[in-house]
RNA sequence: GAGCCGGUAGCUCAGUCGGCAGAGCAACGGACUUUUAAUCCGUGGGUCGCGGGUUCGACUCCCGCCCGGCUCACCA
C-alpha cells in the first residue's frame, strides 16, 4: 500500500468522510454517453485538420486531429507529423466512445466535411442536463484552479471538470489534497461539451466514495502481465478495454442461449454437482468428502444422466447451463471447471438437433455480436446455416483409404496405422481410444468452418442410441469449429438392457487401462427401466463458443478467474 | 509430466563483455481556469522471483526451487 494514500485516508477518517454508505446515481456512465452519442454507420467522409498528437497502437497510428480547436480521432497507417495539416479520408466510427475516422488515408481533393459539423451530427448537445454519476477516477489532469479527469465503469467513461468556480474554493482544495486516480468518486453536476467537443460533467459537488490505497496500472499501456491479469481480474477489467469487451460478450452470449431455449419451451433446471457416481462423460472426476454422510462424493463431470432422469419424469424439454469439473490438465482450450449447456428434447432424434443447433447458434450470434461471420485466428468463420455434414468414417476414409470395417474389426491393423501416423502410446491404447486418436490426429484440425461430424462408432459412445441403419454406429454428431469440438449430441439410448451392456463394456475398457471410461450408474438404468421416451440431447461448450465469438485463442481469456496454482 | 521462453520501481519496459540499478507513466513539491497519453520546473522510489554456488566483484555465469506463458503429452 502506498503511504501517502494511507495518510489521505486517515485525514478522511478524521473528517468522517472515509467510506460513505450510499450515493444516489442518476445513470450509469454508458447510459449518459449513449444518450448523447449517436451510433455511427461507417459513413465515408473527408476531413482536414492539424495533427495534435500521434500515438502508436495495435491498430495503427492513433491521431488527434483538430480543426479550429474541435478535435476528432483518426486511426491510420500513414505516418503523420505533429503540427502538420492533412486532408484525410476514412470511415466514421467510435473509439472508446469518441468519434473516430477509421482506415484514414491521405486525400488530395474530395468534398470536405468540417469536423465541427461532423461532430455535431453524431455528438448531440447535452443541454446542460443535470446528472449524478459514480465511477472510478482513472485519469486526472490538474491545472491549478481547474482540473479534468475521467470517471469510468464497465459501461463507459466520461470526463469530469472541476474548478474553483464550479465547486468552490474549499471543495476544490480538498479534492487536490485528498483525491487520487483510482479512487471511487460520486459527482453531481451539469453536462456540457468542452471546446474540443468532449462530453463532460461540470461538477457542482463530489463525494469520495472509496479510497484506492494502491496506484492504478499504467494509463496508456494498461496491465500486461497475464498472471496479474488473471489473479487480480478486477485490475484487468479496470485497465483493459479488451477484457471488459470479452466479458460483456460472454454475458450476452449466455443470456442469448437462455433466451432462445426459454422461448423454445425449455425448462431450466439444476441437478446435483455433488454426485455419488461421476458418469455421463469420459473424464476423471474431482473427489470430495461429505462429513455428515460420511461418504466420498464426486464433482460432476456432466449433468447428462440426471437430465435424462427428468425426461423420464415427464419434463419434455429441459436444459441446464452450468459448470462441469474434470480433473485434467490446463491449456489454451481446457480449464478444470468449465461451463456447458446441456439440453434434452423428448420425441426428437439427432437429425432434429442438427437443425435446432443451427438455429440456436444463429440466434446467439446475432443477439451478441449482430453477425453470423466472425474472424478467428486470421480466418473467417461463417455460421450461416446450413452447416456441412460429414460422416465420421467417410472423413477417415478420405484420409486413410480405409473403411469402417477396418477401424471396427482390424484391431492390429489399426494399431499399426496409429503407430504410423504418430499416435502417442499407440501400443497400449484400447480399441476405441485408437479410433478416437487417429480421428483427432488426421481429421479434427481441418474442420474449420462449422460442420457436423455424424455417425460415430458405437464403441466411443456408451450413452448414444445404436444407429437405425448400422449396428456398429450410433446416432451421434459433434459440431466442429476451428478444429475444435464445440458441441456433442445424440439420439439418446433409452433401452435399459442395451444401456447396461454399454456400461459393462466401459468397465472392461477401464480394466484395460482407460482411466476415463464411464462409470456404471445403476440408478440411471433403473430410471430407464421405467421408460424414457425417444429423446435427443446435446451439450455445447460455452467457454469455447465465447472464445470464437470474442476472437481470442486462450480459454483463460474468457473465464473471469481461471485455474491457477496457489502462490 | 517434458521442452522452450519469461519474472528488474506501483505499472510498461531497457539493462552491452561480470564492474555504482535505468527510462516513461504513476507518486511527491511547485507553476498553470477548457485539458484529454495535458504541459513546464524540481524530488523521492529497488529483497533485480526465491535459495545456493563460482568470482576481488553477480541483475548478468552455474545448480536447485517457485510462479507464469507457449508447444507437446492428457482432455472437451
Question: What does this 3D model show about the protein?
Answer:
The protein is α+β, with helices and mostly antiparallel strands and 567 residues long. It contains 17 helices and 26 strands. The model has no long low-confidence stretch (mean pLDDT 93). The structure holds one RNA strand of 76 nucleotides.
Largest sheet: 8 strands, mixed
Average of per-residue pLDDT values: 93
Oligomeric category: single chain
Radius of gyration: 30 Å
Query: How does the overall form come out from the CA principal axes?
Result: elongated
pLDDT under 50 segments (min length 5)? none
How would you classify the helix and strand content by structural class?
A: alpha+beta
Number of strands: 26
Q: Order of strands across the biggest sheet?
A: 12-16-17-26-25-24-21-20
Strand content: 25-35%
Helicity level, as a percent range?
25-40%
Give the CA-CA distance, first to last residue: 19 Å
Number of helices, counting only DSSP H or I runs of 4 residues or more: 17
List the helices and strands and how they pair.
Blueprint: H1 3-14, H2 29-36, E1 44-57, E2 60-67, E3 70-76, E4 85-95, E5 98-106, E6 112-113, H3 115-122, E7 130-142, E8 146-153, E9 156-163, H4 164-167, H5 169-178, E10 184-193, E11 199-210, H6 226-231, H7 233-239, H8 241-263, E12 267-268, E13 274-275, E14 287-290, E15 295-299, H9 304-312, E16 317-325, E17 337-346, H10 350-368, E18 373-376, E19 379-382, E20 388-391, H11 392-400, H12 404-409, H13 411-421, H14 431-442, E21 451-454, E22 466-467, E23 470-474, E24 476-481, E25 484-491, H15 496-511, H16 522-529, E26 535-541, H17 542-550
Parallel strand pairs: 1-6, 3-5, 9-11, 12-16, 20-21
Antiparallel strand pairs: 1-2, 1-4, 2-3, 4-5, 7-8, 7-10, 8-9, 10-11, 13-15, 14-15, 16-17, 17-26, 18-19, 21-24, 22-23, 24-25, 25-26
The protein binds one RNA strand of 76 nucleotides through strand 7, strand 8, strand 9, helix 6 and strand 25.
Amino acid at each position: 500500500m502506498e503511504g501517502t494514500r494511507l495518510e489521505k485516508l486517515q485525514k478522511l477518517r478524521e473528517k468522517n468522510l472515509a467510506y460513505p454508505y450510499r450515493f444516489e446515481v442518476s445513470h450509469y456512465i454508458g447510459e449518459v454517453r449513449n444518450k448523447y452519442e449517436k451510433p455511427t454507420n461507417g459513413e465515408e467522409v473527408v476531413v482536414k485538420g492539424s495533427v495534435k498528437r500521434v500515438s502508436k497502437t495495435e491498430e495503427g497510428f492513433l491521431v488527434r486531429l483538430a480543426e479550429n480547436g474541435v478535435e476528432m480521432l483518426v486511426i491510420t497507417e500513414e505516418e503523420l507529423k505533429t503540427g502538420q495539416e492533412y486532408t484525410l479520408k476514412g470511415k466514421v466510427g467510435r473509439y472508446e466512445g469518441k468519434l473516430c475516422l477509421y482506415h484514414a488515408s491521405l486525400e488530395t481533393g474530395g468534398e470536405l466535411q468540417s469536423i465541427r459539423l461532423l461532430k455535431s451530427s453524431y455528438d448531440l448537445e447535452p443541454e446542460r442536463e443535470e446528472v449524478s454519476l459514480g465511477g472510478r477516477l482513472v485519469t486526472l489532469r490538474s491545472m491549478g484552479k481547474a482540473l479534468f479527469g475521467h470517471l469510468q465503469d464497465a459501461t463507459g467513461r466520461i470526463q469530469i471538470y472541476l474548478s474553483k468556480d464550479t465547486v468552490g474554493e474549499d471543495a476544490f482544495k480538498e479534492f487536490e489534497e485528498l483525491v487520487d486516480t483510482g479512487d471511487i468518486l460520486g459527482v453531481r453536476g451539469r453536462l456540457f461539451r468542452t471546446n474540443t467537443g468532449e462530453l463532460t460533467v461540470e461538477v457542482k459537488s463530489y463525494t469520495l466514495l472509496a479510497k484506492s490505497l494502491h496506484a492504478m496500472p499504467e494509463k496508456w499501456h494498461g496491465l500486461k502481465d497475464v498472471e496479474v491479469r488473471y489473479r487480480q481480474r478486477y485490475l484487468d477489467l479496470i485497465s483493459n478495454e479488451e477484457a471488459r469487451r470479452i466479458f460483456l460478450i460472454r454475458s450476452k452470449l449466455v443470456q442469448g442461449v437462455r433466451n432462445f431455449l426459454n422461448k423454445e419451451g425449455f425448462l431450466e433446471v439444476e441437478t446435483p454437482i455433488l454426485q455419488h457416481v461421476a458418469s455421463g462423460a469420459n473424464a476423471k472426476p474431482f473427489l470430495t468428502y461429505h462429513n455428515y454422510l460420511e461418504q466420498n462424493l464426486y464433482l460432476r463431470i456432466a449433468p447428462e444422466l440426471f437430465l435424462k432422469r427428468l425426461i423420464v419424469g415427464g419434463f419434455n424439454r429441459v436444459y441446464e447451463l452450468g459448470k462441469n469439473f474434470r480433473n485434467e490438465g490446463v491449456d489454451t482450450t481446457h480449464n478444470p471447471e468449465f461451463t456447458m449447456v446441456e439440453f434434452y428434447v423428448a420425441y426428437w432424434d439427432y437429425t432434429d438437433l442438427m437443425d435446432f443447433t443451427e438455429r440456436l447458434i444463429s440466434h446467439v450470434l446475432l443477439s451478441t455480436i449482430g453477425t453470423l461471420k466472425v474472424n478467428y485466428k486470421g480466418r473467417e468463420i461463417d455460421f450461416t446455416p446450413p452447416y456441412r455434414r460429414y460422416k465420421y468414417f467417410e472423413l477417415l476414409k478420405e484420409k486413410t483409404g480405409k473403411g469402417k470395417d477396418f477401424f471396427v474389426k482390424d484391431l492390429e491393423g489399426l494399431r499399426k496405422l496409429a503407430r504410423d501416423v504418430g499416435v502417442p502410446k499407440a501400443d497400449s491404447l484400447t480399441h476405441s481410444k485408437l479410433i478416437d486418436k487417429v480421428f483427432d490426429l488426421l481429421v479434427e484440425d481441418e474442420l474449420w468452418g462449422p460442420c457436423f461430424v455424424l455417425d460415430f462408432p458405437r464403441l466411443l459412445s456408451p450413452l448414444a442410441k445404436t444407429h437405425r441403419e448400422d449396428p456398429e454406429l450410433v446416432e451421434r454428431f459433434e459440431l466442429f469449429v476451428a478444429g475444435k469440438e464445440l458441441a456433442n449430441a445424440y439420439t439418446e439410448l433409452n433401452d435399459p438392457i442395451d444401456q447396461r451392456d454399454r456400461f459393462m463394456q466401459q468397465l472392461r475398457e477401464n480394466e484395460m487401462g482407460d482411466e476415463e471410461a464411464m462409470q456404471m450408474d445403476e440408478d440411471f438404468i433403473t430410471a430407464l427401466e421405467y421408460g424414457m421416451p425417444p429423446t435427443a440431447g446435446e451439450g455445447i461448450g460455452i467457454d469455447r463458443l465465447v472464445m470464437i465469438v470474442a476472437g481470442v485463442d486462450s480459454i483463460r481469456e474468457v473465464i473471469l478467474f481461471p485455474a491457477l496454482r496457489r502462490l
